[in-house]
């Protein structure tokens, strides 16, 4: 057995993620007194849990240096979070002592109670004969201690909210670009309402003014067999709204095929009044390649329903997906214009570890990537790749397709251009890592 450590910290680079706070709460529940920080330079101690949410963290020199420093000082560095879907990459790039893969509550308890790595569920670590991966299992009981909420949580801003809060795990969807059904499964596991509300009160007491719901598609709370449990979801929204106030709650992500009149009424009455749909493409061909499972006509109906109930519809669009051709891209522009959404988020298809998209990207030749092919069309003078040019074009187009069109000024034009270039650069780096560790 390992000796009992005396100092434990949780680090979440730049952002207090919900997962990091949840880990801190589990550690505290085992009898320790952990502290949490988003400042890497403050991480010191015998055991450090580092929560990383982006694959790009694996390439961040500051994070690499932090892991080296912790170990040089004699500390043990344990990494978890969404990056853990690619444990080979985490171990190969950052060289931590342990990677906690997927749902980590049982693993954290095991480690904090003195357990050895080989007996720890949901873990990966380096050994003399290669990488060892232990039994993977999902938590069945979602009753958790309160998160470790930092005193300065109120200074955080995530699209207007100070934090997200988990209501359930899992999604019955199959979207090929999404980790949720792969990490949490397609069966919905929901938390008890009173426990959620107790957590909301704790966040509010610490200075959270607005919070958002996470857990895959919001309205799937307490759903079973693909059927929306409208009553349970409405009770959830009403309960949180009664504590925070209706204009201080957001439920951003709802599938277009998981919408009912009752849900829309509850969203209008108990939240900031927005719904964010993952629309992704105007091409049925690309929707099928994405395994989205939502016909475009269903999206049209959902957007129209939102407006009938006074809810403002927003949506995300993905371009540069493998197989996307000019006519597919044009179909997306046409749908964006038709829907005239109140807000739009545009991204280039990012291959996240352990998703079908990542597998497809690793199979393809690099020269076939739209994120690498030089753009030769309208924006040729800007020296963009084809995927970057399409993302940039969609950002500009979205401004013109709002209910009240917005003329893009020079400053905003530059912001969109920089964003498209950054996304392209980031995805090329992520793709390089994937192909290095998981060659097709």
What does it look like?
This protein has 440 residues and is of the alpha/beta class. It has 2 domains: 8-133, Rossmann fold (3-Layer(aba) Sandwich); 153-437, Alpha-Beta Horseshoe (pyruvate-formate lyase- activating enzyme). 38% of the residues lie in helices and 15% in strands. It has 14 helices and 15 strands. The protein has helices at residues 18-29, 61-72, 87-94, 105-112, 180-183, 193-205, 230-244, 261-270, 284-289, 296-308, 326-339, 356-363, 386-400, 410-437; strands at 8-11, 35-37, 47-51, 76-80, 98-100, 123-127, 130-133, 163-166, 168-169, 189-190, 211-214, 249-250, 274-280, 312-319, 343-348. The strands form 4 sheets. The chain has a 7-stranded mixed beta sheet with strand order 2-1-3-4-5-6-7, sandwiched between helices. The protein has a 3-stranded parallel beta sheet with strand order 8-11-12. Strand 6 (123-127) and strand 7 (130-133) form a beta hairpin. The longest helix has 28 residues, at 410-437. The relative contact order is 0.08. The model has no long low-confidence stretch (mean pLDDT 94).
């Amino acid at each position: 057995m390992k000796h009992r450590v005396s100092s434990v910290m949780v680090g979440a680079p730049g952002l207090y993620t919900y997962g990091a706070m949840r880990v801190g709460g589990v550690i505290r529940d085992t009898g320790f007194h952990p502290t949490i920080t988003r400042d890497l330079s403050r991480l010191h101690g015998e055991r450090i849990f580092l929560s990383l949410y982006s694959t790009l963290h694996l390439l961040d020199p500051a994070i690499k240096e932090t892991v080296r420093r912790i170990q040089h000082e004699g500390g043990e560095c344990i990494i978890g979070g969404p990056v853990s879907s690619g444990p080979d990459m985490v171990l190969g790039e950052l060289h931590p002592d342990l990677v906690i893969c997927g749902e980590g509550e049982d693993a954290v308890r095991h480690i904090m109670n003195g357990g050895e790595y080989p007996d720890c569920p949901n873990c990966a670590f380096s050994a003399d004969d290669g990488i060892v991966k232990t039994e993977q299992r999902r938590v069945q009981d979602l009753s958790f201690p309160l998160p470790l909420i930092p005193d300065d949580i109120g200074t955080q801003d995530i699209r207007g909210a100070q934090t997200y809060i988990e209501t359930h795990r899992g999604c019955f969807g199959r979207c090929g670009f999404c980790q949720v059904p792969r990490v949490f499964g397609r069966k919905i596991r929901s938390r008890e309402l009173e426990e959620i509300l107790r957590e909301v009160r704790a966040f509010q007491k610490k200075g959270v003014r607005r919070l958002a719901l996470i857990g895959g598609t919001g309205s799937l709370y307490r759903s079973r067999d693909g059927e929306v449990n409208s009553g349970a979801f409405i009770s959830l929204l009403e309960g949180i709204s009664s504590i925070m106030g209706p204009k201080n709650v957001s439920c951003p992500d709802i599938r277009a095929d998981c919408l009912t009149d009752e849900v829309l009424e509850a969203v209008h009455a108990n939240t900031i009044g927005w719904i964010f749909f993952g629309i992704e493409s105007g091409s049925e061909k690309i929707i099928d390649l994405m395994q989205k499972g939502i016909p475009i006509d269903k999206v049209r109906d959902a957007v129209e329903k939102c407006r009938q109930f006074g809810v403002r519809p927003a949506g995300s669009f993905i371009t540069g997906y493998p197989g996307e051709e000019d006519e597919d891209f044009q179909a997306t522009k046409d749908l964006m214009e038709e829907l005239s959404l109140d807000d739009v988020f545009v991204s280039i298809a990012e291959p996240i570890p352990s998703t079908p998209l990542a597998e497809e990207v690793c199979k393809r030749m690099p020269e076939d990537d739209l994120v690498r092919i030089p753009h030769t069309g309208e924006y040729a003078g800007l020296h963009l790749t084809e995927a970057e040019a399409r993302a940039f074009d969609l950002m500009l187009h979205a401004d013109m397709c709002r209910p009240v069109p917005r003329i893009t000024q020079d400053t905003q034009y530059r912001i969109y251009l920089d964003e498209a270039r950054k996304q392209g650069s980031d995805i090329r780096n992520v793709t390089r890592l994937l192909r290095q560790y998981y060659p097709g």
